[in-house]
């Protein structure tokens, strides 16, 4: 597409969007919403509240339902303590993760499935 054709196409889209904007400006429903938002913001400012305060007042559960992108850090469930007992040596290892040095050695020596069968708690 030539630059001139691209320019004319963009110009046409802009004219259509400006026309849609002008139609919205005359819409009474939009005017009512704008007036409501303006009054609401003034009221919030007068009492020193924010929109988040109002949402928490109306629906306190909404902050607990957050998605992964809105979840706060540090709210992950703590890992459970696992205890493994080696039946060959009687050695006991307590860990909350699989990154334990002795546990890794056992898994390389006896395989992961065998070591997982040693789980006591």
Structure description:
The structure is a single chain. By secondary structure, this protein is mainly alpha-helical. The protein folds into 2 domains: 3-63, no CATH class; 82-116, no CATH class. It contains 5 helices and 2 strands. It has helices at 3-25, 28-47, 51-58, 101-110, 112-116; strands at residues 82-85, 92-95. A two-stranded antiparallel ribbon has the order 1-2. The longest helix is centred in the first third of the chain and has 23 residues, at 3-25. The protein is elongated and about 85 Å long. The termini are far apart.
Give the helices and strands, then pairings:
Elements (H helix, E strand, L loop, with lengths): L2 H23 L2 H20 L3 H8 L23 E4 L6 E4 L5 H10 L1 H5 L5
Listing every helix as H and every strand as E from the N terminus to the C terminus, the arrangement reads HHHEEHH
Overall structural domain count: 2
Number of helices: 5
What share of residues is helical?
A: 40-55%
Give the strand content.
5-15%
In total, the number of strands is 2
Shape category? elongated
Largest sheet: 2 strands, antiparallel
Q: Which whole number gives the mean pLDDT?
A: 86
Low-confidence stretches: none
- Distance between the amino and carboxyl termini: 69 Å
Structural class, from helix and strand content? mainly alpha
Strand order of the largest sheet: 1-2
Radius of gyration: 31 Å
């Amino acid at each position: 597409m030539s630059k001139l054709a691209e320019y004319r196409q963009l110009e046409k889209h802009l004219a259509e969007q400006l026309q849609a904007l002008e139609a919205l400006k005359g819409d009474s429903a939009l005017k009512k919403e704008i007036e409501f938002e303006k009054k609401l913001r003034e009221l919030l400012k007068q009492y020193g509240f924010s929109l988040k305060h109002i949402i928490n007042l109306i629906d306190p559960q909404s902050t607990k339902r957050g998605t992964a992108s809105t979840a706060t850090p540090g709210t992950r469930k703590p890992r459970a303590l696992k205890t493994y007992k080696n039946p060959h040596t009687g050695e006991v290892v307590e860990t909350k993760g699989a990154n334990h040095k002795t546990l890794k050695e056992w898994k390389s020596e006896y395989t992961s499935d065998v070591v997982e069968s040693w789980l006591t708690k």
